[in-house]
C-alpha cells in the first residue's frame, strides 16, 4: 500500500524534475552562448592547471551548474519583458506556449537572483556573479535592451562576466586567459547585432531601437559582413599564433576562419527570416567552437 511517507519523496522528485525541464525550456535556445562555451573554458582552465581527472570532473560539473543559473537568470528576465514580441519572433517560448505563467516566472526569477550569487560566493567568484546581475538589471529593468548599443555592450561585457568566472572557478586568471577574454569580448560587442536581423518585425512592433532599424538593414549587413571577413585575422593573431605552430592551431585557424567567412557571405546573401535564424545559430556554434579550442591552446 502506498503511504504518505512513500508518496512525498516521489512528489518532490517529480516537482524537481518539472522545474529542471521548465528551466531547460527557458534556456534551450541560449545554451550555445552560455552553458556549452563557458564550460569549455572551465575545462581549459583545468588543463592549464594540470588538475587530476577527478578534480577536472568536479570543476566542470560545478561550472556547468553555475552557467545554467547564469543563463536562467538572463532568460527569465528577458522573456518576462518580451512576451509581446516573443508572440511574433519566438512563439515557442514558455510564457507564450503557456508552460509557465508570468507569476511563476517572476517567482523563479526571484529565487534565481538569490541562489545565483550565493552559489557564486561558494565558488569564490562572487564579483563576476554580481557583475552579471548588474548587467541584467541594466538590460531588462533600466533600458539597455531598448537600444542597440546597450544590447551589444550587455553581450560584450557579459563575455567578461562569463569567461572570467569560468577560469576563476579553477584558479587565478593568467595574461593569456585575459587575451582570450578581451578578444572575444571585442568580437561579440561588434558583431552581436547579427541576432537582431532575425527579429526585425518584433522589434519594430515594440519600438526597440536595434542596429538594423537605426542604421538600416543593408548597412547593418555590410558592417557585419566586413566584421566576419576580418575576424579570422584577429583570431589568428591574438588567440592561435601565441600557442605556437602546432597542427591543432593550424586546423583550428582553418576551421574558425572558414566558418567566419561563411558567416560573412551568409549575412549579405541570405536575407530571409529562416536564413537569418540559421546564421545566428552558426554564430553561436562558432563561439562554442572557439572556446572548445581553448582547451588545447591554453594548456
Give Rg in angstroms: 20 Å
Compressed to H and E, one letter per element, the order equals: HHHHHHHHHHHHHH
Tally of DSSP helical segments: 14
Q: Which blocks of ≥5 consecutive residues have pLDDT under 50?
A: none
Structural class: mainly alpha
Tell me, what's the shape? globular
| First-last Cα distance | 58 Å
* Share of residues in helices: over 70%
Strand content: under 5%
Organism: Streptomyces olivaceiscleroticus
Protein name: UbiA family prenyltransferase
Subcellular location: Membrane
Keywords: Membrane, Transmembrane, Transmembrane helix
Q: What structural keywords apply?
A:
single chain, 299 residues, mainly alpha, 79% helix, globular
Structure description:
Helix 8 (148-168) runs antiparallel to helix 9. This protein is mainly α. The model has no long low-confidence stretch (mean pLDDT 92). It has helices at residues 4-27, 35-48, 53-80, 83-89, 94-97, 102-123, 126-140, 148-168, 175-191, 200-205, 211-215, 217-240, 247-269, 273-297. It is built from 14 helices and no strands. It has one domain (29-297). It is globular. 79% of the residues lie in helices and 0% in strands.
Amino acid at each position: 500500500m502506498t503511504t504518505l511517507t512513500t508518496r512525498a519523496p516521489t512528489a518532490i522528485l517529480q516537482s524537481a524534475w518539472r522545474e529542471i525541464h521548465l528551466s531547460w525550456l527557458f534556456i534551450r535556445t541560449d545554451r550555445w552562448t552560455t552553458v556549452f562555451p563557458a564550460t569549455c573554458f572551465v575545462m581549459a582552465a583545468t588543463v592549464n592547471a594540470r588538475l587530476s581527472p577527478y578534480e577536472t570532473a568536479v570543476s566542470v560539473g560545478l561550472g556547468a551548474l553555475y552557467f545554467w543559473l547564469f543563463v536562467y537568470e538572463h532568460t527569465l528576465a528577458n522573456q518576462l519583458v518580451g512576451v509581446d514580441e516573443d508572440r511574433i519572433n519566438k512563439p515557442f517560448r514558455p510564457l507564450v506556449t503557456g508552460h509557465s505563467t508570468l507569476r511563476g516566472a517572476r517567482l523563479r526569477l526571484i529565487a534565481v537572483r538569490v541562489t545565483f550569487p550565493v552559489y557564486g560566493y561558494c565558488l569564490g567568484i562572487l564579483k563576476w556573479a554580481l557583475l552579471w546581475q548588474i548587467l541584467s538589471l541594466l538590460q531588462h529593468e533600466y533600458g539597455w535592451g531598448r537600444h542597440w548599443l546597450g544590447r551589444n555592450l550587455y553581450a560584450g561585457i557579459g563575455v567578461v562576466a562569463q569567461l572570467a568566472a569560468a577560469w576563476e572557478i579553477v584558479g587565478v586568471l593568467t595574461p593569456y586567459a585575459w587575451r582570450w577574454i578581451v578578444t572575444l569580448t571585442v568580437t561579440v560587442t561588434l558583431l552581436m547585432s547579427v541576432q537582431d536581423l532575425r527579429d526585425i518585425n518584433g522589434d519594430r512592433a515594440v519600438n526597440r531601437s536595434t542596429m538594423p532599424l537605426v542604421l538600416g538593414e543593408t548597412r547593418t549587413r555590410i558592417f557585419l559582413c566586413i566584421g566576419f571577413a576580418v575576424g579570422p585575422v584577429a583570431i589568428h593573431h591574438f588567440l592561435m599564433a601565441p600557442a605556437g605552430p602546432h597542427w591543432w592551431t593550424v586546423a583550428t585557424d582553418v576551421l574558425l576562419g572558414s566558418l567566419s567567412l561563411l558567416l560573412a557571405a551568409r549575412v549579405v546573401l541570405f536575407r530571409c527570416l529562416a536564413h537569418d535564424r540559421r546564421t545566428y545559430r552558426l554564430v553561436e556554434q562558432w563561439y562554442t567552437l572557439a572556446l572548445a579550442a581553448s582547451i588545447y591552446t591554453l594548456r
